[in-house]
């Protein structure tokens, strides 16, 4: 039965991924209800590293990166006896084996003299998760999200018309919420995933760590390094800074420590005890790597840790991957709920996002930080370049034309050259006299055809008139001017008459190397397929 008010999307979990989902959905005008079991926030700051791609997504949502990492920033980890004792060596995330820096062959390849490629307008950012979440929540509320705490989901039902989430509220009363679709952003121990009996696979549980979160002025001894492996005969631990005076020390043993033992161990890790020290909280920490066997069951979608629990790593595959999930899903839900696209579009979520999580799972164990945990469930594989993993993981799905399994699963943007299934390359352009990154033009929730040739104008106008999905035209050299000697044809590997079709999330859906004999017919066919439009040819 058609109803006049659209049913909301229900999001379970108001942590990093649930709040990001709500913000993405509300920014597309989709009514959203978030149900969260807890009354307050987690006491632990948890993740801190948010990657360039994540900051790009937040930029498109109107969140400014107030504290970008320096341009050539590499997250170094120092291996030390103690903070103020002997420093042994440093390692970077890319290292496949640990060895002292001095033993490394000096890199003298010609690339070192050419300037580093800029793949993004945004840099990574160090924001403690407990500072980021309130920002996301405030914006989501401003854009109309309905966030309800002390609402614990206990069951999910779905039928042809929608989903029903049953919760118990603060008074223990049962309440039912009806929605069109449901996003399970309820974390590693996802109630939704368990109710739906979706299994997970992967390396599994590796180690249980105990941790202590404390405040102390250690910066005076860190030489700008934010992560340390502490190596003493009777203390193997990991020390990480939240860059706001808070630190986490994680023990790789199962010893139970009381408050005074915790203080002594922190002093031992620092190598002195003449500094003020405030213990904030302690916790248990599980190192786990598991990916759900499917990210979709009917009208229910898994996102974030509910879909893939990946151990914290310097590539930022844990928390960041979940933010990218909901960015991929939100515009699709918006298109389907507004009637522009048919529900089949939603099947591309699992097809596009699950392989991303699986590859990230495997790449974690190829690197030195985790290869001690490598086992038969996680075949080693080749290490893929960090920039390729961050900016160049390819999507394959029914919603993309010209991308298939024969392609490598990740490459750097300048090696992809506009390959469908990859995110559109970053460069600066002039639009209405203003210098803007391509991200600000094409990653804004609308479909755009980009070309240097006006032979596509008529085709775009004709689609705009007949299809349920609106299409914009970016005329390179006219409405959009290139800068810095950038070359559109080279960046997209098309000829002067060629074109690239950009999705609402900035991914390239299709590309024509040159204009076909009947661009109107061609573009109609292409749009019908990749946008799953409900009307048109
Ligand atoms: C101590 C700690 C340190 C971490 N450090 C890092 C790090 O350094 N780097 C990194 O990348 N990641 C780190 N992580 C992981 C990171 O925090 C997660 O990847 C991220 O929080 C995932 O977000 P999420 O929203 O998917 O899930 P979660 O943050 O787990 O949130 C799930 C939410 O769902 C709610 N919920 C669960 N069940 C229900 C239910 N039945 N009904 C209603 N609500 C429910 C929960 O209360 C919670 O708010 C850390 C995690 C922890 C615990
Ligand atoms: C590790 O990095 C720090 C900070 O950049 C530096 O001071 C130190 O010399 C490095 N140590 C080694 C062994 O490279
Ligand atoms: C995730 O959940 C599994 C099983 O529910 C558990 O074994 C593991 O320790 C959990 N991991 C984390 C990081 O909480
Ligand atoms: C397509 O239609 C939208 C509104 O539906 C409009 O904003 C846009 O300018 C049109 N684009 C073209 C190329 O006609």
From TrEMBL:
InterPro entries: FAD-bd (IPR002938), FAD/NAD-bd_sf (IPR036188), RIFMO-like (IPR050641). Residues 85-94, 108-117 have a biased composition (Polar residues). Its cofactor is FAD. Coiled coil: none annotated. Keywords: FAD, Flavoprotein, Oxidoreductase, Signal. It comes from the Eukaryota. GO terms for molecular function: FAD binding; oxidoreductase activity, acting on paired donors, with incorporation or reduction of molecular oxygen, NAD(P)H as one donor, and incorporation of one atom of oxygen. SUPFAM superfamilies: FAD/NAD(P)-binding domain. Residues 85-123 are annotated as: Disordered. Residues 1-22 form the signal peptide. Residues 8-357 form the FAD-binding domain. Transmembrane segments: none annotated. Residues 95-107 have a biased composition (Basic and acidic residues). This is FAD-binding domain-containing protein. It comes from Penicillium daleae.
């Amino acid at each position: 039965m058609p109803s006049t008010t659209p049913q909301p999307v229900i999001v379970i979990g108001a942590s990093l991924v649930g709040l990001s989902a709500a913000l993405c959905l509300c920014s597309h005008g989709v009514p959203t209800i978030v149900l969260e079991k807890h009354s307050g926030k987690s006491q632990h700051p948890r993740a801190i590293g948010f990657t360039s791609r994540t900051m790009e997504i937040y930029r498109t949502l109107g969140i400014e990166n107030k504290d970008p990492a320096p341009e050539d920033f590499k997250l170094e980890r120092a291996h030390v006896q103690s903070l103020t004792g002997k420093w042994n060596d440093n390692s970077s995330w890319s290292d496949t084996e640990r060895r002292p820096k001095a033993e490394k062959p000096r890199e003298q390849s010609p690339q070192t003299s050419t300037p580093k490629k800029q793949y993004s307008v945004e840099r990574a950012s160090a924001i403690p998760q407990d500072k980021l979440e309130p920002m996301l929540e405030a914006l989501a509320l401003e854009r109309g999200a309905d966030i309800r705490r002390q609402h614990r989901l206990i069951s999910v039902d779905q039928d042809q018309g929608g989903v029903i989430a049953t919760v118990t509220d603060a008074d223990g009363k049962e309440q039912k919420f009806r929605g069109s679709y449901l996003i399970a952003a309820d974390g590693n121990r996802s109630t939704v995933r368990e109710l739906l009996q979706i299994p997970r696979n992967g390396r599994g549980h590796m180690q249980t760590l105990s941790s202590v979160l404390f405040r102390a002025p250690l910066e005076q001894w860190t030489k700008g390094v934010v992560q340390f492996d502490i190596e003493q005969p009777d203390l193997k631990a990991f020390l990480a800074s939240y860059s706001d005076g808070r630190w986490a020390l994680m023990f790789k043993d199962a010893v139970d420590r009381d408050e005074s033992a915790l203080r002594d161990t922190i002093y031992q890790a620092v190598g002195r005890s003449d500094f003020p020290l405030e213990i904030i909280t302690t916790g248990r920490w599980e190192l786990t790597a598991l990916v759900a066997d499917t990210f979709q069951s009917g009208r229910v979608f898994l996102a974030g840790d509910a879909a893939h629990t990946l151990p914290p790593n310097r590539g930022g595959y844990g928390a960041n991957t979940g933010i990218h999930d909901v960015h991929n899903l939100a515009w699709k839900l918006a298109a389907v709920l507004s009637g522009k696209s048919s529900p089949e579009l939603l099947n591309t979520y699992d097809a596009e996002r699950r392989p991303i999580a699986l590859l990230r799972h495997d790449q974690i164990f190829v690197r030195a930080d985790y290869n001690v945990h490598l086992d038969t469930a996680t075949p080693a594989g080749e290490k893929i370049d960090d920039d390729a993993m961050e900016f160049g993981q390819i999507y394959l799905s029914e919603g993309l034309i010209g991308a298939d399994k024969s392609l490598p699963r990740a490459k750097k943007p300048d090696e992809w050259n506009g390959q469908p299934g990859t995110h559109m390359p970053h460069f600066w352009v002039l639009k209405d006299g203003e210098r803007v990154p391509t991200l600000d033009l094409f990653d804004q929730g609308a479909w755009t055809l980009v070309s240097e040739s006006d032979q596509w104008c008529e085709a775009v106008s004709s689609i705009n008139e007949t299809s349920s999905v609106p299409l914009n035209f970016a005329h390179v050299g006219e409405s959009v001017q290139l800068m810095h000697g950038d070359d559109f044809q080279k960046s997209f590997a098309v000829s002067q008459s060629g074109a690239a079709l950009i999705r609402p999330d900035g991914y390239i859906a299709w590309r024509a190397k040159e204009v076909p004999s009947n661009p109107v017919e061609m573009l109609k066919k292409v749009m019908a397929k990749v946008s799953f439009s409900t009307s048109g040819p």
